[in-house]
Amino acid sequence: MGPKCPKNQCPYCGVYHSNVVQHVKERHLAKREQCPTCHTTFTRRTSLIRHLNHSCKSLQYTLDTIK
């Protein structure tokens, strides 16, 4: 078994230490972006843009729209 996430209550276990570091940066330290339509939370802006363009068809966004 690999290294575990140091955050309490998080079940993530990576293969390498670098995987755990990347996980902590993305999941626990990253700024959260929220969909204005369905209020789903995303850690990456590109994931939010993809969600808005494909799932929430009511609004079409680009990276310039969300700042």
What topology does this entry show?
Layout: H1 17-28, E1 33-34, E2 41-42, H2 45-54
Antiparallel strand pairs: 1-2
Note the gap between the termini: 40 Å
Unreliably modeled segments: none
What is the molecular shape? elongated
Tally of distinct domains: 2
Could you spell the SSE succession in H and E letters? HEEH
Helix content: 25-40%
| Largest sheet geometry | 2 strands, antiparallel
Write down the Rg: 15 Å
Number of distinct beta strands: 2
What proportion strand?
Answer: 5-15%
Write out the strand line-up for the largest beta sheet, numbering strands in chain order.
1-2
Mean pLDDT: 76
How many helices does DSSP assign? 2
Helix/strand structural class: mainly alpha
Describe the protein in words:
The chain has 67 residues and is mainly alpha-helical. The chain has 2 domains: 1-30; 32-67. 33% of the residues lie in helices and 6% in strands. It is built from 2 helices and 2 strands; from the N terminus they run αββα. It has helices spanning 17-28, 45-54; strands at 33-34, 41-42. The protein has a two-stranded antiparallel ribbon with strand order 1-2. The protein is elongated.
